[in-house]
Each structure stands twice: as structure tokens, then as C-alpha cells.
Amino acid sequence: MWTNQTTINKQNFLFLNKKTLNYVYLTIAIGLIGVVCGIFLTILKTTFWFTIVGFSALILGGLYGLIVVFKSQKKVIGSTLLYTFNETDFTVKTEQGESVISYISLTKILQDDKTLLLFISKNQAYIVDKTNLDSACIEHITLSNLQKDYADIIQE
User: Could you tell me what percentage of the chain is helix, strand and coil, using 3-state DSSP and rounding each to the nearest 5?
Assistant: First the structure.
């Protein structure tokens, strides 16, 4: 049994949301390119204003995505998670309560030098600070998950 205390910080929050932010930035970039092209083509009288409006909607959608991500960041940064890692599962204690998650129920594991992300669904993961976690524990978690054929364990 291993224990870990993780305080969510900006770095590990952004690691969790990196893929979402990349999609948001791409959406905004496509929208900006579309608006610029639409304005240019409108000047040449070869397109309609609704093209510009359509690409503007992409920009607004991307900006809304940024707002959602950064509002959720304000809610979770600074919160503390207490983990207890056992043979077949782990327990997470937060201010809201306690959850027990089986390793076999994890859908994906991502890790970098300092952070371990334990995904319980496509878009939800527990953030674990690896700097104060025993390497034997990390190995146990990943090996427990390798028993599944569809396990997705990625080192970034």
C-alpha cells in the first residue's frame, strides 16, 4: 500500500487539458484564417458575408472553449487529493468525499516527468503528483492496467 498527497497546480492541470486546448486553438486559428479569406474575397466581390459570419462562429466557439477550461482551472487549482494505492484499486479522498477506483476500470494512463494521469473516462482523469510517489507504486499501477487488452499507457 502506498499513499500520496497531490495538490493540483497549473502545470498538471494544463497537462490534463493539453489535448482540449490544442483543439480550441486549432478552431480559433481556422476561424481567423476563414475570416481573413472571407474579407479578402468579399473585397473582390466573389463571396458572401455569411462566409465571414460562419468562420466568426468558429472563433466564438473556440473562445467559449477557452473560457470553460480556464473557469474550471480556477475551481480545481489548489485543491488537494489524498490517494491510497492498494493491490487492485486506489482510494481518492477530496473535500467532496471519497471514491474507490479499480485499476482495471482505468481507460488510459498518461504520464510525464512529474504527473501521472489516471483516466476513468475519455475526458476525466485523476491527477497524481509523481514527485512524491514511489516508483514501485507507478510500476504496479501500469502493470495492473497492462492486463487489459485495450489499456492505453503513454509516456509523454
Answer: 50, 25, 25
